[in-house]
């Protein structure tokens, strides 16, 4: 049994997970699912939980100091589990809020499980609406997928953001006459639409 807690790449991955969670929390639209990061974090958490459980079960070597250390490790594992669960819940909330928009315009941002969830949620919602009201209306008033009926995320909402690197001039208006010079670690309050592509590219993070 190893004496040290397995932490290879953990700190870096936790920082990336925290940024992915904060971006998803603050972005008005659904962002691209972080497949590799989430898969790696789930695997690391499972391995670390097994390690802590094994250490706790080894009564012969479980000193008071080691017991205290295990509790600290468990707190860190629980913190990571919370971020993972919160990240996934945030995404499901956005899928439910903008289901038709997501299925029309953001399918490439979903995980396979989220694709199934979005279709299932859409079918259940439409079935509920038909049973509750639509079946009682004329056929030409029973549609739910007309363009004007699709709820879109508000990309013009303002967000706090920080540059992860020197980016240079970023256009902040529709006419191209106003720019902001975004340098590494600079913080700004901008319309999300202005930085949406930079967030997806990892050049900017939301706060």
TrEMBL record:
Protein known as: DNA replication complex GINS protein SLD5
Record GO biological process: DNA-templated DNA replication; double-strand break repair via break-induced replication
Domain DNA replication complex GINS protein SLD5 C-terminal, first and last residues per copy: 153-207
Assigned protein family: Belongs to the GINS4/SLD5 family.
Main location: nucleus
Residues of the GINS subunit domain: 41-128
Protein location: Nucleus
Organism encoding this protein: Aphanomyces astaci (Crayfish plague agent)
CDD domains assigned to the protein according to its UniProt record, in alphabetical order: GINS_A_Sld5, GINS_B_Sld5
Keywords: DNA replication, Nucleus
UniProt xrefs under Gene3D superfamilies: 1.20.58.1030
């Amino acid at each position: 049994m190893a004496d040290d807690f397995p932490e290879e790449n953990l700190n870096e991955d936790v920082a990336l997970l925290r940024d992915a969670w904060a971006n998803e929390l603050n972005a008005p639209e659904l962002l691209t699912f972080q497949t590799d990061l989430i898969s790696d974090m789930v695997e690391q958490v499972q391995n670390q939980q097994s390690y802590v459980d094994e250490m706790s079960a080894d009564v012969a070597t479980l000193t008071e100091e080691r017991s205290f250390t295990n509790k600290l490790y468990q707190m860190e594992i629980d913190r990571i589990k919370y971020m993972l669960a919160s990240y996934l819940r945030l995404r499901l909330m956005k899928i439910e809020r903008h289901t038709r928009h997501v299925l029309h315009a953001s399918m490439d941002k979903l995980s396979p499980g989220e694709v199934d969830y979005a279709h299932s949620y859409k079918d259940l919602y439409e079935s509920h609406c038909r049973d509750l009201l639509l079946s009682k209306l004329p056929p030409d008033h029973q549609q739910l997928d007309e363009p004007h009926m699709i709820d879109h995320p508000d990309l013009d909402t303002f967000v706090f953001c920080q540059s992860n690197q020197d980016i240079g001039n970023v256009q902040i208006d529709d006419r191209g006459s106003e720019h902001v010079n975004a340098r590494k670690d600079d913080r700004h309050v901008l319309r999300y639409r202005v930085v949406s592509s930079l967030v997806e590219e990892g050049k900017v993070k939301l706060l």
